């Protein structure tokens, strides 16, 4: 069974790289945010505004749990590493790739991504958002089996780099 989980902050390229990896490796692409939306019938901003972040995290953890034995490329939401129990679960997946991107690049990308508004960006000052980034970095590093720097690299070479480093 082949299984690669992509983790990293919002805007790190998990969806784009996930698509490329799935195509190159001929594996299904699974997106935890999409599964949460399908399960609840609500989109992410609605879930945050109606039920709050903690409720979202509980569903996110359940969705992660349901994927333990699933083959494919699993693209996760940026906050999947927040719950201790979710980090423990992530460590049981075959490969966990952390896409590490400088915060300046992320802020630029998130501001441009109108199709995918991030409640955490909209609800915090830029300074507070930077602090969230800093506090999460060690959590991504904790669960990662491979760390990939993604600043200004094109998706194709990044995908190649991941395949080489993961060894699939
Ligand atoms: C979140 C990241 C989002 C989404 C939600 C919360 C986070 O996913 O799960 O808005 O806490 O970092 P992306 O990382 O795909 O933007």
From TrEMBL:
<keyword id="KW-0028">Amino-acid biosynthesis</keyword>
<keyword id="KW-0547">Nucleotide-binding</keyword>
<keyword id="KW-0067">ATP-binding</keyword>
<keyword id="KW-0963">Cytoplasm</keyword>
<dbReference type="InterPro" id="IPR027417">
    <property type="entry name" value="P-loop_NTPase"/>
</dbReference>
<feature type="binding site">
    <location>
        <begin position="11"/>
        <end position="16"/>
    </location>
    <ligand>
        <name>ATP</name>
    </ligand>
</feature>
<comment type="subunit">
    <text>Monomer.</text>
</comment>
<keyword id="KW-0808">Transferase</keyword>
<dbReference type="InterPro" id="IPR000623">
    <property type="entry name" value="Shikimate_kinase/TSH1"/>
</dbReference>
<dbReference type="InterPro" id="IPR023000">
    <property type="entry name" value="Shikimate_kinase_CS"/>
</dbReference>
<comment type="similarity">
    <text>Belongs to the shikimate kinase family.</text>
</comment>
<keyword id="KW-0479">Metal-binding</keyword>
<comment type="function">
    <text>Catalyzes the specific phosphorylation of the 3-hydroxyl group of shikimic acid using ATP as a cosubstrate.</text>
</comment>
<dbReference type="GO" id="GO:0004765">
    <property type="term" value="F:shikimate kinase activity"/>
</dbReference>
<protein>
    <recommendedName>
        <fullName>Shikimate kinase</fullName>
        <ecNumber>2.7.1.71</ecNumber>
    </recommendedName>
</protein>
<feature type="binding site">
    <location>
        <position position="15"/>
    </location>
    <ligand>
        <name>Mg(2+)</name>
    </ligand>
</feature>
<dbReference type="GO" id="GO:0000287">
    <property type="term" value="F:magnesium ion binding"/>
</dbReference>
<keyword id="KW-0057">Aromatic amino acid biosynthesis</keyword>
<dbReference type="InterPro" id="IPR031322">
    <property type="entry name" value="Shikimate/glucono_kinase"/>
</dbReference>
<comment type="pathway">
    <text>Metabolic intermediate biosynthesis; chorismate biosynthesis; chorismate from D-erythrose 4-phosphate and phosphoenolpyruvate: step 5/7.</text>
</comment>
<feature type="binding site">
    <location>
        <position position="57"/>
    </location>
    <ligand>
        <name>substrate</name>
    </ligand>
</feature>
<keyword id="KW-0460">Magnesium</keyword>
<dbReference type="GO" id="GO:0008652">
    <property type="term" value="P:amino acid biosynthetic process"/>
</dbReference>
<dbReference type="Pfam" id="PF01202">
    <property type="entry name" value="SKI"/>
</dbReference>
<dbReference type="GO" id="GO:0009073">
    <property type="term" value="P:aromatic amino acid family biosynthetic process"/>
</dbReference>
<feature type="binding site">
    <location>
        <position position="78"/>
    </location>
    <ligand>
        <name>substrate</name>
    </ligand>
</feature>
<dbReference type="GO" id="GO:0005524">
    <property type="term" value="F:ATP binding"/>
</dbReference>
<dbReference type="GO" id="GO:0005829">
    <property type="term" value="C:cytosol"/>
</dbReference>
<keyword id="KW-0418">Kinase</keyword>
<dbReference type="GO" id="GO:0009423">
    <property type="term" value="P:chorismate biosynthetic process"/>
</dbReference>
<feature type="binding site">
    <location>
        <position position="136"/>
    </location>
    <ligand>
        <name>substrate</name>
    </ligand>
</feature>
<feature type="binding site">
    <location>
        <position position="33"/>
    </location>
    <ligand>
        <name>substrate</name>
    </ligand>
</feature>
<feature type="binding site">
    <location>
        <position position="118"/>
    </location>
    <ligand>
        <name>ATP</name>
    </ligand>
</feature>
